[in-house]
C-alpha cells in the first residue's frame, strides 16, 4: 500500500515537472519572438537558454518577495534576460575623461528649503521620448544630450531631438561605444554645438565623424556646473531643469520593472542617466529617472530610485549647464 502511494506521488511530481517545463518552453519561445532573438547556432541557443532560465528563476523569486512586501520593486524578463551574470557586469559605459574639461563650478543653492513636493518635467513637455543606446556603451552621450534637449526646451520653448551619434563619433575626449563621461561630453557640446538627430542619426556603433557646423544648434552657456548632494540636485532640478546623473548599477537593476528601486549597487558609478523629476509614494521619496535602454525596460523606459539616501552614489556626480 505504501509503495503504491509513493508511486502515485512520484507520478504526480513527474507530471507537474513536465507541465512546468512545457510552460517554460512556451515562455522562452514567446520571449524570443517578442525581442527578435535568433541565434547563430544550437550551441549559442543552449547557452542563452541556460542564462534565461537562471534569470527567470531570479525574477520569479524576487517578485514573490515583492508581492509579500519584502521588496520595494518588481522585476521582469526584458531584453537582458538571455545575458549571463558576467556579460551584465561588463556593461560599463562610464569612464572618466582622459583630458581636463573646462572649469565646472560646484552648484550650491538654498532653494531646497522651499522645494515643491513633486516635479516632473515631462508634464511641461520638455523631455524627449525614451531612446535606446543598444549594445553601444554610450549612456554618457544619451544622458548629456537629454540634459541639453530639456534645458533648450525650458529656455526657448521648443523640444528638439539632438544627436547622440555626433558625440559617439566626434567627441574624442570620450570613448564612443567604449564609454565616456557627461562632464567631458557637455564640454564638447558647449564648444561645438549639436546637430539634430534627424540630420545625424543614431547607429549604435562608432564611425567617422560627420559633424557639420552649419547644421548644428549653437549652444552658449552662462554657467556649467557639477552638483554634489541630493539637496542640490533637487533644487536645480525643481527650478532649472533635468540633468545627468551617474549611478552604480548592479545586475538586479537591469531587470527593473516597476516600484521604487532600493537594492544592491556596484562598487562604483558605471552608468549615466537623466533625472527629470522626483516625488513620493506611500511616504517613500524617489527620483524619476529616464534611462536609455528602450521603452520596454522599466516603466516605459523610466525608473523610480529611492531618494535622500544617496543610493548607488546617485548624488555624487550630477552635471548640467544653463543656456543663454
TrEMBL record:
<dbReference type="GO" id="GO:0008234">
    <property type="term" value="F:cysteine-type peptidase activity"/>
</dbReference>
<feature type="domain" description="Cathepsin propeptide inhibitor">
    <location>
        <begin position="28"/>
        <end position="88"/>
    </location>
</feature>
<keyword id="KW-0732">Signal</keyword>
<dbReference type="InterPro" id="IPR013201">
    <property type="entry name" value="Prot_inhib_I29"/>
</dbReference>
<dbReference type="GO" id="GO:0006508">
    <property type="term" value="P:proteolysis"/>
</dbReference>
<keyword id="KW-0378">Hydrolase</keyword>
<keyword id="KW-0645">Protease</keyword>
<dbReference type="Pfam" id="PF00112">
    <property type="entry name" value="Peptidase_C1"/>
</dbReference>
<protein>
    <submittedName>
        <fullName>Ervatamin-C-like</fullName>
    </submittedName>
</protein>
<dbReference type="InterPro" id="IPR013128">
    <property type="entry name" value="Peptidase_C1A"/>
</dbReference>
<keyword id="KW-1015">Disulfide bond</keyword>
<keyword id="KW-0865">Zymogen</keyword>
<keyword id="KW-0788">Thiol protease</keyword>
<dbReference type="Pfam" id="PF08246">
    <property type="entry name" value="Inhibitor_I29"/>
</dbReference>
<dbReference type="InterPro" id="IPR000169">
    <property type="entry name" value="Pept_cys_AS"/>
</dbReference>
<feature type="domain" description="Peptidase C1A papain C-terminal">
    <location>
        <begin position="115"/>
        <end position="322"/>
    </location>
</feature>
<feature type="signal peptide">
    <location>
        <begin position="1"/>
        <end position="20"/>
    </location>
</feature>
<comment type="similarity">
    <text>Belongs to the peptidase C1 family.</text>
</comment>
<dbReference type="InterPro" id="IPR038765">
    <property type="entry name" value="Papain-like_cys_pep_sf"/>
</dbReference>
<dbReference type="InterPro" id="IPR039417">
    <property type="entry name" value="Peptidase_C1A_papain-like"/>
</dbReference>
<dbReference type="InterPro" id="IPR025661">
    <property type="entry name" value="Pept_asp_AS"/>
</dbReference>
<dbReference type="InterPro" id="IPR000668">
    <property type="entry name" value="Peptidase_C1A_C"/>
</dbReference>
